[in-house]
Amino acid sequence: MSRAYAKPIIRTSGLSKNYGDVQAVKKLNLEIYPGEIFGLLGPNGAGKTTTTLMLLGLTDPTSGHAAIDGKDCTRNSLAVKNEVGYLPDKVGFYPSVTGRENLIFSGMMNGLAREEAAQRADELMERVGIAYAGDRKAGTYSRGMRQRLGIADVLMKKPKIIIMDEPTSGIDPQGTRELTKLIRELADKDGLTILISSHDLYQIQAISDRVGIFVKGKMIACGRIDELGAQLRSEGLYIFDFKVERNGENIWTDAFQKSIRSIPGVKLIGKKVDGSIHVEANRDMQKELVRLLADQDYVIREMHQSGGDLEEIYRRYFEQAEKEGGENSGSSKDGKQRRFGRNKEQLEKIH
Ligand SMILES: Nc1ncnc2c1ncn2[C@@H]1O[C@H](COP(=O)(O)OP(=O)(O)OP(=O)(O)O)[C@@H](O)[C@H]1O
């Protein structure tokens, strides 16, 4: 269903939770639509779990409201629990009982008769791709298989929404791809709405239709990844990474840096560990950059413009929020900006 016509299936307004002096969630306004995969992205302690607990009716908000399918998560928590399945980071099963028996037991706990539960268990093991291991003890399952069994378990009660905590962490790349595909299908084919909570940019980027970026209890950005990227660019984020050469000489000189910084709009220049140059600007100055390099007889080996991938978005928004948040920011002692991402992205020098 197109979002334009659908009503949000998850809606929060001014949702807040304090634990003593700690504001774990601050005035969260969120709308998630049927069939969407929404990623709650944030570092440890950002408030993702607290948000999830409030949606599941497991903890009461200090103020504000959360509703699922029109039902208030606090006042009508029983009805909400019937519609929402929760897949925790570590799914608990009876290890000495087969995967199939675990599911049957779960179905019976949810009010199904044994035969009905057994039939559904078989269908779901097939659906999630572990029918071949149905008669093996759950304790012998790999993490990827346990996650699949966990999804089958959640599906036993025919939920409309599944909330998942770090569903692919600790799973190898091939297993992650397969699990991602399964989760995608649950949204696309079965129309389930899926909320994924994670601090892993790559997991969220690979799977989500939209993301909400959480920092210190606040959702500081929300939207499709490409929308967030476009928003950042419209606010002035243009990133150029390039490699240059000139007669084999050391190019990373003061004169070189000064000439790049002379281009209007350049805010930062750095050299990455792989020797490439990283320039951030608040406007598109690629043509001037290329001209300047060519005028000075540099040979450009490669150049690409970025600024729209989730890592950059996350880092940017996170830095912005930290600047606005003042003290307790994650900035390092020397005042340089904290950087997310992998080693290859680390800058050797930042100016
Ligand atoms: N029961 C509690 N009592 C006191 N403080 C809590 C409690 N639960 C969470 N907090 C605090 O609330 C804030 C948000 O925590 P929360 O667990 O929601 O974050 P998170 O984004 O889920 O982090 P993680 O990825 O580490 O699970 C943190 O500062 C945390 O210490």
Automatic annotation (TrEMBL):
Keywords: ATP-binding, Nucleotide-binding, Transport. This is ABC transporter ATP-binding protein. Transmembrane segments: none annotated. GO terms for molecular function: ATP binding; ATP hydrolysis activity. PANTHER family: ABC TRANSPORTER RELATED, ABC TRANSPORTER, ATP-BINDING PROTEIN. SMART domains: AAA (SM00382). Residues 10-241 form the ABC transporter domain. InterPro entries: AAA+_ATPase (IPR003593), ABC_transporter-like_ATP-bd (IPR003439), P-loop_NTPase (IPR027417). Belongs to the ABC transporter superfamily. Residues 321-351 are annotated as: Disordered. Residues 333-351 have a biased composition (Basic and acidic residues). PROSITE patterns: ABC_TRANSPORTER_2.
